[in-house]
Amino acid sequence: MKELARPHRLAPGARVAVVATSGPVPEERLQAGLDVLRGWDLDPVTGAHVLDRHPQFGYLAGSDADRAADLQNAWCDPNVDAVLAARGGYGAQRIIDLLDWDAMRAAGPKVFVGFSDLTVLHEAFATRLGLATLYGPMAAGADFVKNARAQEHLRATLFAPETVRTIASRGTALVPGRARGVTLGGCLCLLAAELGTPHARPSARGGLLCLEDVGEETYRLDRYLTQLLRAGWLEGVRGVLLGSWEDCAGYAELRPLLADRLAALGVPVAENVGFGHGEGALTIPFGVTAELDADAGTLTLDEPALR
């Protein structure tokens, strides 16, 4: 697994586009998120369809074609320095193959931020554009709007990434040890759903794999992990970082399952690292070389997430 191209950091006055790639966006939270971005001296603009609702499927923010067009237009706009997802939910998978990846590649690298359902876009940006991305809070997300820790960690990553070269967790080691590799990952159920799709990453070999999820029964998490194991996708992974498991079973129930499915990999596994759907989520760069120290609960990047 190779390190990916890092986009440039943001500066005051940078224009950032907020787009809805997945679920419908609450207008009040969107406006609050835009106010946060303005407070950072950024110039936020929104996609034309950011507040749309799909006429038939209420879990989608407008039609697939319109959501794809908003993302592509923002990415290909030379005046836009970063693209932030408004929220997750579901729907990013439906637009992947509607995007003109050649045009997006020609537009050059820029910052992309999102998490949860945006996992499939992180994977696509890695495999189709060779671009490092940020797995972090979204502009209309409750955590981004209300939580100072989530806001400040994302802000530091965007403006002064050298100040967050080491990401420290409050967790412990499920499996002790140290490992080096290239970061990747996201929402467990979506990584499992990507298997076999066009341009999907063939495996996590050489990577430090970040896993988290939300609202899943324990047996479903078991199924996703088992699917990745049976498909050989986890062969050669260097280490694993476990984030939040919001609205899943209590961690006392999940921990034995995670140990059962992951310990046999023979690599360090850090738990409760603090990214994902939990309160005060940290921003994790994907596509960069880093060292995991599971005992200390730290992820140290070789270079800042952004140039």
Characterize the structure shown.
With 307 residues, the chain is of the alpha/beta class. Helices cover 31% and strands 21% of the residues. It has helices at 27-39, 64-76, 92-95, 101-106, 119-129, 142-146, 148-159, 188-194, 218-230, 251-262; strands at residues 15-19, 43-46, 82-85, 111-114, 133-135, 166-168, 173-175, 178-187, 207-214, 239-246, 269-270, 284-286, 289-293, 298-301. The strands form two sheets. It has an eight-stranded mixed beta sheet with strand order 6-14-13-8-9-10-11-7.
The ordered string of helix (H) and strand (E) elements is: EHEHEHHEHEHHEEEHEHEHEEEE
Q: Helix amount, in percent?
A: 25-40%
Query: What is the oligomeric state here?
Result: single chain
User: Based on CA inertia axes, which overall geometry fits?
Assistant: globular
According to DSSP, the number of beta strands is 14
Strands of the largest sheet, in order across it? 6-14-13-8-9-10-11-7
* DSSP summary: helix tally: 10
**Unreliable stretches, pLDDT < 50, 5 or more residues?**
none
Radius of gyration: 18 Å
Averaged pLDDT: 97
Distance between the termini: 20 Å
Output the structural class. alpha/beta
- Kindly estimate the percentage of residues that lie in beta strands according to DSSP: 15-25%
Q: Give a quick account of the main beta sheet: strands, pairing sense, barrel closure.
A: 8 strands, mixed
Would you spell out the secondary-structure blueprint of this structure?
Blueprint: E1 15-19, H1 27-39, E2 43-46, H2 64-76, E3 82-85, H3 92-95, H4 101-106, E4 111-114, H5 119-129, E5 133-135, H6 142-146, H7 148-159, E6 166-168, E7 173-175, E8 178-187, H8 188-194, E9 207-214, H9 218-230, E10 239-246, H10 251-262, E11 269-270, E12 284-286, E13 289-293, E14 298-301
Parallel strand pairs: 1-2, 1-3, 3-4, 4-5, 8-9, 9-10, 10-11
Antiparallel strand pairs: 5-12, 6-14, 7-11, 8-13, 13-14
Helix pairs in contact: 8-9, 9-10
